[in-house]
Every structure is written in C-alpha cells, then in structure tokens.
Amino acid sequence: xxxxxxxxxxxxxxxxxxxxxxxxxxxxxxxMRKRLPTANELVYDNYNxxxxxxxxxxxxxxxxxxxxxxxxxVSLSFYYGATLPDPDGILLGSGNxxxxxxxxSPATLKEPPVERLLRAxxxxxxxxxxxxxxxxxxxxxxxxxxxxxxAAER
Length: 154
Fold this sequence. Notes:
Blueprint: H1 6-15, H2 19-35, E1 40-45, E2 50-55, E3 63-70, E4 73-78, E5 99-102, H3 112-124, E6 137-142
Parallel strand pairs: 1-6
Antiparallel strand pairs: 1-2, 2-3, 3-4, 4-5
C-alpha cells in the first residue's frame, strides 16, 4: 500500500479537529504559506498539538515559527521567542526559548505587532529562508497516542 501524500495526510490531521478549529487551522496555514512561500512546512502530529513548522530546510532546527494547533485553538509559536523584541507585549509563555501568540482569527497574523515579531524572527534565523522557489510540505512524525483534538463536550 502506498503512503498517502503529505497533502492528504495533513488534511486528515486537520479533520480530527472540530469544524470551527479546522477552518481556523486551514485559514492560518494558507496565510502562512502565502507569507513564507519558500519555507518548508514541517508537520508533526504530536501528542499535544498538530504543529506545522516553517523552516528554511528539512531540519527542525531551522524552524523559525510554527502553527501550534490544539483543541483549544491555534497559536503562532516562535521557536526563539524569548530573544525577540516585544515592545507591544503580545508574546505569551515563560519558557527559556519558546513564546507564542494566540490566533483567534487568521486576521491576527496580519496585525502590525505580529508582523513585526515575524520579521524579527526571520531576521535572527540562523538559516535564512530561500530567496526563491517553493517550499514543500513534509510530514516529519505522527504520534500513535494523541490528546483529543476536539474540546470535551460539556
């Protein structure tokens, strides 16, 4: 049996979410793809999140940002967010490295404070995004065990 294409696999990962979250994930992913057309999308269907990283190469270490998709919504995660200038104070998280911004709607990605963070993250990346070409979608891992992708019924 042939392996499913990356696009088919990603569509199946997103389909695990409730319809509103799935729509938000697809819209944010589309906006990120337009914003970073030369980046590779590194997809991890992990225990806690569906993570879609944007990287200059196929190496996870070259990821600059990712969409972290959980049952409670979508965030834009900055791998080295702790070192980014954040004059607007929008970064969340307190780890040594990672910071994130919640994305209640895809329009949040176009807000000036978020765009400034994204530009700063790209500027400090060890490996710059390719100047031309089109990035690929690469499914890096699928966890056998996963948290529910839909919010618990009340």
